[in-house]
Specification:
alpha/beta; Rossmann fold; 7-stranded mixed beta sheet; 7 helices; 29% helix; 22% strand; globular; binds guanosine-5'-triphosphate; binds zinc ion
Protein backbone atom coordinates (compact mmCIF):
# COMPACT_ATOMS: atom_id res chain seq x y z
CA UNK A 1 0.00 0.00 0.00
CA UNK A 2 2.67 2.47 0.97
CA UNK A 3 4.62 4.19 -1.77
CA UNK A 4 8.24 3.47 -0.94
CA UNK A 5 9.37 6.32 -3.21
CA UNK A 6 7.69 8.87 -0.97
CA UNK A 7 10.45 10.62 0.99
CA UNK A 8 9.98 10.70 4.74
CA UNK A 9 11.14 13.72 6.69
CA UNK A 10 10.47 14.87 10.20
CA UNK A 11 8.06 17.77 10.66
CA UNK A 12 9.86 21.07 11.05
CA UNK A 13 8.64 23.92 13.22
CA UNK A 14 8.81 27.07 11.14
CA UNK A 15 9.74 30.12 13.12
CA UNK A 16 7.39 32.41 11.20
CA UNK A 17 3.69 31.74 11.48
CA UNK A 18 1.59 32.52 8.40
CA UNK A 19 -1.80 31.78 9.93
CA UNK A 20 -4.16 32.62 12.71
CA UNK A 21 -6.56 29.89 13.85
CA UNK A 22 -9.56 32.20 13.62
CA UNK A 23 -12.81 30.33 14.33
CA UNK A 24 -14.39 26.91 14.49
CA UNK A 25 -17.75 25.22 14.85
CA UNK A 26 -19.48 21.93 14.13
CA UNK A 27 -21.46 22.06 10.88
CA UNK A 28 -24.07 19.37 10.18
CA UNK A 29 -24.01 17.98 6.62
CA UNK A 30 -25.63 15.12 4.73
CA UNK A 31 -22.52 13.07 5.50
CA UNK A 32 -22.49 13.91 9.22
CA UNK A 33 -20.97 16.62 11.37
CA UNK A 34 -17.86 18.38 10.03
CA UNK A 35 -15.72 20.30 12.50
CA UNK A 36 -15.12 23.43 10.43
CA UNK A 37 -11.97 25.30 11.35
CA UNK A 38 -11.17 28.60 9.62
CA UNK A 39 -7.59 29.85 9.39
CA UNK A 40 -6.72 33.38 8.30
CA UNK A 41 -3.54 34.35 6.50
CA UNK A 42 -1.90 37.12 8.51
CA UNK A 43 -0.48 38.87 5.42
CA UNK A 44 -3.73 39.30 3.47
CA UNK A 45 -6.70 38.03 5.51
CA UNK A 46 -7.43 35.22 3.04
CA UNK A 47 -9.38 32.43 4.72
CA UNK A 48 -8.70 28.71 4.33
CA UNK A 49 -10.81 25.93 5.79
CA UNK A 50 -10.07 22.62 7.49
CA UNK A 51 -12.95 20.15 7.67
CA UNK A 52 -12.09 17.77 10.47
CA UNK A 53 -13.66 14.43 11.28
CA UNK A 54 -12.79 12.56 14.48
CA UNK A 55 -9.70 13.00 16.63
CA UNK A 56 -6.61 13.99 14.64
CA UNK A 57 -4.48 15.75 17.27
CA UNK A 58 -1.22 13.83 17.75
CA UNK A 59 -2.26 11.15 15.24
CA UNK A 60 -0.11 9.42 12.59
CA UNK A 61 -1.36 8.44 9.14
CA UNK A 62 -4.39 10.73 9.17
CA UNK A 63 -6.33 10.58 5.86
CA UNK A 64 -5.94 14.08 4.40
CA UNK A 65 -7.11 15.73 1.21
CA UNK A 66 -5.38 19.00 0.32
CA UNK A 67 -7.95 20.47 -2.05
CA UNK A 68 -7.66 23.65 -4.11
CA UNK A 69 -10.75 25.77 -4.66
CA UNK A 70 -12.57 25.36 -7.99
CA UNK A 71 -15.66 27.56 -8.06
CA UNK A 72 -16.65 26.54 -11.58
CA UNK A 73 -17.01 22.84 -10.83
CA UNK A 74 -17.86 22.87 -7.12
CA UNK A 75 -20.55 25.56 -7.27
CA UNK A 76 -21.61 25.78 -10.93
CA UNK A 77 -21.23 22.12 -11.88
CA UNK A 78 -18.68 22.61 -14.68
CA UNK A 79 -17.67 19.37 -16.37
CA UNK A 80 -14.31 20.74 -17.55
CA UNK A 81 -12.38 19.25 -14.62
CA UNK A 82 -12.66 16.65 -11.86
CA UNK A 83 -12.43 18.91 -8.79
CA UNK A 84 -15.99 18.66 -7.48
CA UNK A 85 -15.99 14.90 -7.66
CA UNK A 86 -12.62 14.67 -5.93
CA UNK A 87 -13.89 16.90 -3.12
CA UNK A 88 -17.06 14.83 -2.77
CA UNK A 89 -15.15 11.54 -2.71
CA UNK A 90 -12.67 12.86 -0.15
CA UNK A 91 -15.52 13.97 2.13
CA UNK A 92 -17.13 10.54 1.67
CA UNK A 93 -13.85 8.88 2.62
CA UNK A 94 -13.09 10.82 5.81
CA UNK A 95 -16.68 10.64 7.08
CA UNK A 96 -16.99 6.91 6.37
CA UNK A 97 -13.54 6.33 7.89
CA UNK A 98 -14.54 8.35 10.96
CA UNK A 99 -11.26 10.25 10.92
CA UNK A 100 -9.55 12.64 8.56
CA UNK A 101 -9.10 16.18 7.33
CA UNK A 102 -10.10 17.93 4.12
CA UNK A 103 -8.20 21.18 3.67
CA UNK A 104 -10.00 23.60 1.36
CA UNK A 105 -7.39 26.05 0.11
CA UNK A 106 -8.28 29.33 -1.58
CA UNK A 107 -5.91 28.95 -4.47
CA UNK A 108 -8.38 28.90 -7.35
CA UNK A 109 -7.15 27.95 -10.80
CA UNK A 110 -3.94 26.33 -9.52
CA UNK A 111 -3.18 29.66 -7.89
CA UNK A 112 -3.84 32.09 -10.77
CA UNK A 113 -7.31 33.12 -9.56
CA UNK A 114 -10.79 32.79 -11.03
CA UNK A 115 -10.58 35.58 -13.62
CA UNK A 116 -7.34 34.24 -15.05
CA UNK A 117 -8.68 30.67 -15.04
CA UNK A 118 -11.61 31.81 -17.17
CA UNK A 119 -9.13 33.56 -19.50
CA UNK A 120 -7.30 30.23 -19.68
CA UNK A 121 -10.57 28.46 -20.51
CA UNK A 122 -11.11 30.90 -23.39
CA UNK A 123 -7.65 29.99 -24.72
CA UNK A 124 -8.42 26.30 -24.26
CA UNK A 125 -11.51 26.78 -26.45
CA UNK A 126 -9.05 27.87 -29.17
CA UNK A 127 -7.11 24.61 -28.84
CA UNK A 128 -4.49 25.21 -26.14
CA UNK A 129 -4.20 22.65 -23.36
CA UNK A 130 -4.48 23.53 -19.66
CA UNK A 131 -0.73 24.22 -19.25
CA UNK A 132 -0.21 25.96 -22.59
CA UNK A 133 -3.06 28.33 -21.70
CA UNK A 134 -1.42 29.20 -18.36
CA UNK A 135 1.89 29.93 -20.11
CA UNK A 136 0.24 32.07 -22.78
CA UNK A 137 -1.10 34.20 -19.92
CA UNK A 138 2.39 34.52 -18.43
CA UNK A 139 1.93 32.05 -15.57
CA UNK A 140 3.77 28.85 -14.72
CA UNK A 141 1.90 25.53 -14.99
CA UNK A 142 1.12 25.56 -11.28
CA UNK A 143 1.44 28.58 -9.00
CA UNK A 144 0.38 26.80 -5.81
CA UNK A 145 2.39 26.43 -2.64
CA UNK A 146 1.89 24.08 0.28
CA UNK A 147 3.24 26.15 3.16
CA UNK A 148 -0.29 27.13 4.23
CA UNK A 149 -1.52 23.52 4.10
CA UNK A 150 1.47 22.35 6.12
CA UNK A 151 0.91 24.96 8.81
CA UNK A 152 -2.80 24.13 9.02
CA UNK A 153 -1.92 20.47 9.58
CA UNK A 154 0.67 21.38 12.21
CA UNK A 155 -1.82 23.64 14.02
CA UNK A 156 -4.32 20.75 14.00
CA UNK A 157 -1.64 18.54 15.56
CA UNK A 158 -1.50 16.06 12.67
CA UNK A 159 1.81 14.17 12.85
CA UNK A 160 1.77 12.38 9.47
CA UNK A 161 -0.72 11.93 6.66
CA UNK A 162 -2.12 9.41 4.20
CA UNK A 163 -2.61 11.83 1.34
CA UNK A 164 -5.66 11.53 -0.92
CA UNK A 165 -4.29 12.65 -4.27
CA UNK A 166 -3.14 11.67 -7.74
CA UNK A 167 -0.66 14.53 -7.94
CA UNK A 168 2.97 13.64 -7.18
CA UNK A 169 3.91 17.34 -6.99
CA UNK A 170 1.43 17.76 -4.15
CA UNK A 171 3.10 14.94 -2.19
CA UNK A 172 6.52 16.49 -2.81
CA UNK A 173 5.21 19.96 -1.88
CA UNK A 174 3.89 18.81 1.49
CA UNK A 175 7.00 16.79 2.29
CA UNK A 176 9.13 19.81 1.43
CA UNK A 177 7.10 21.82 3.92
CA UNK A 178 7.83 19.27 6.63
CA UNK A 179 4.70 17.11 6.65
CA UNK A 180 5.51 13.38 6.51
CA UNK A 181 3.41 11.58 3.87
CA UNK A 182 3.06 7.94 4.96
CA UNK A 183 1.34 6.79 1.79
CA UNK A 184 -0.84 7.94 -1.06
CA UNK A 185 -4.54 7.12 -1.28
CA UNK A 186 -5.52 7.37 -4.97
CA UNK A 187 -8.41 9.66 -5.76
CA UNK A 188 -10.65 8.00 -8.31
CA UNK A 189 -11.62 10.25 -11.18
CA UNK A 190 -14.53 9.83 -13.55
CA UNK A 191 -13.91 11.17 -17.02
CA UNK A 192 -16.44 12.74 -19.35
CA UNK A 193 -16.16 14.13 -22.89
CA UNK A 194 -15.39 17.60 -21.49
CA UNK A 195 -12.56 16.69 -19.10
CA UNK A 196 -10.89 13.64 -20.66
CA UNK A 197 -8.25 15.68 -22.54
CA UNK A 198 -7.59 17.75 -19.39
CA UNK A 199 -7.05 14.58 -17.36
CA UNK A 200 -4.83 13.03 -20.02
CA UNK A 201 -2.76 16.22 -20.18
CA UNK A 202 -2.27 16.19 -16.40
CA UNK A 203 -1.19 12.56 -16.61
CA UNK A 204 1.22 13.13 -19.49
CA UNK A 205 2.70 16.50 -18.54
CA UNK A 206 2.84 16.50 -14.74
CA UNK A 207 2.79 12.79 -14.01
CA UNK A 208 -0.63 12.68 -12.37
CA UNK A 209 -1.33 9.11 -11.30
CA UNK A 210 -4.78 9.11 -12.84
CA UNK A 211 -6.60 5.89 -13.63
CA UNK A 212 -8.80 6.85 -16.54
CA UNK A 213 -9.60 3.45 -17.87
CA UNK A 214 -10.14 -0.03 -16.46
CA UNK A 215 -6.70 -1.21 -17.63
CA UNK A 216 -5.09 1.53 -15.51
CA UNK A 217 -6.50 -0.01 -12.36
CA UNK A 218 -4.09 -0.95 -9.56
CA UNK A 219 -4.42 -2.55 -6.17
CA UNK A 220 -4.02 0.49 -3.94
CA UNK A 221 -6.85 1.75 -1.76
CA UNK A 222 -9.23 4.01 -3.62
CA UNK A 223 -11.39 6.87 -2.58
CA UNK A 224 -14.92 6.61 -3.86
N1 LIG B 1 -5.25 27.38 -14.35
C1 LIG B 1 -6.12 26.38 -14.44
N2 LIG B 1 -6.57 25.83 -13.30
C2 LIG B 1 -7.43 24.79 -13.40
C3 LIG B 1 -7.89 24.29 -14.63
N3 LIG B 1 -8.76 23.28 -14.41
C4 LIG B 1 -8.82 23.16 -13.05
N4 LIG B 1 -8.03 24.07 -12.45
C5 LIG B 1 -7.75 24.27 -11.04
O1 LIG B 1 -6.93 23.21 -10.63
C6 LIG B 1 -7.06 23.03 -9.23
C7 LIG B 1 -7.25 21.55 -8.98
O2 LIG B 1 -6.62 21.29 -7.88
P1 LIG B 1 -6.65 19.90 -7.09
O3 LIG B 1 -8.05 19.47 -6.87
O4 LIG B 1 -5.75 20.10 -5.92
O5 LIG B 1 -6.08 18.84 -8.09
P2 LIG B 1 -4.70 18.37 -8.57
O6 LIG B 1 -3.59 19.33 -8.42
O7 LIG B 1 -4.97 17.89 -9.95
O8 LIG B 1 -4.32 17.16 -7.67
P3 LIG B 1 -5.17 15.96 -7.07
O9 LIG B 1 -6.62 16.28 -7.35
O10 LIG B 1 -4.84 15.98 -5.62
O11 LIG B 1 -4.74 14.72 -7.73
C8 LIG B 1 -8.23 23.89 -8.80
O12 LIG B 1 -7.73 25.07 -8.17
C9 LIG B 1 -8.92 24.25 -10.12
O13 LIG B 1 -9.55 25.51 -10.11
C10 LIG B 1 -7.38 24.91 -15.84
O14 LIG B 1 -7.69 24.50 -16.95
N5 LIG B 1 -6.51 25.95 -15.67
ZN1 LIG C 1 -11.85 22.24 -11.26
Amino acid sequence: MSDSRTPQVLPTRKSTSLLERFSEADVPTGRGVLRTVVFREKRNGREHVALVVGEVQGMEGVPVRVHSECLTSEVFGSLKCDCREQLDRALDFVTQHGCGVVLYLRQEGRGIGLGNKIKAYALQAQGLDTYEANRKLGFPDDLRSYDIAAEMLRLLGVRSVDLITNNPLKIAGLVEEGIPVRRRIPSRTEHNPHNVDYLKTKRERTGHLIELFAEDDDTEAKVG
